[in-house]
Amino acid sequence: xxxxxxxxxxxxxxxxxxxxxxxxxxxxxxxxxxxxxxxxxxxxxxxxxxxxxxxxxxxxxxxxxxxxxxxxxxxxxxxxxxxxxxxxxxxxxxxxxxxxxxxxxxxxxxxxxxxxxxxxxxxxxxxxxxxxxxxxxxxxxxxxxxxxxxxxxxxxxxxxxxxxxxxxxxxxxxxxxxxxxxxxxxxxxxxxxxxxxx
Length: 198
Description:
By secondary structure, the protein is an all-alpha fold. The protein is about 65% helix and about 0% strand. It has helices at about 10-15, 20-25, 30-45, 50-55, 65-75, 80-90, 95-105, 115-120, 125-155, 175-195.
C-alpha cells in the first residue's frame, strides 16, 4: 500500500479548494508538520465529515498534532468528539490538555461537566483558567436552552410557574444529573479556593 505524501503547497491548495478528502488523507502523512497543517485546515473549513479522522488524530504520537486536532474539533463543535476530548484531559502534554478544555467549552456537551471540574485541581494556572471558562460556557448553554424552551412554549415571567420536576422525588431519570449540575457552583468555588495558593 502506497503511503500518502504531501507538502506545504499541497495543504494550501487543499484548503483553498476546500478539498476535505485531500486534507483527511494528509492526516496520515509521515511528516508531523503536514499532519498538523491538515488538521488545522479541517478546523478552518469546519469540516464536519472530518470529525472521526480528527478524533483518531488525538492519539497521534506527536503532542503538537494532538493539540491541533483538539483545537479543530472545538472549531467544528460536534459533540461526537466529547468523549475523546475528555480522555485528552489526561494527556501528559499541557498544551493538549489546554486545547481539550477550550474545545469542550466550545462544544458545550454537559457530559464534560464533571471532568472539567476536576481540572480545577490542576497545578497549572492556565489549565484552571481554561476550566473556569469552559464551565462558564456550559452554564451559559444550559441557560440558553431553558430560555429557548420558555420562548417556544410561550412562558411569561408573570405566569405562575408549575412546580419544577427537579424537586420531585423520583419519576425523572435525569433528576440526579440535574441535582449534580446545581451543586457545581459550590464545588467549583471549593476547588478553586483550595488550589488558589498553588
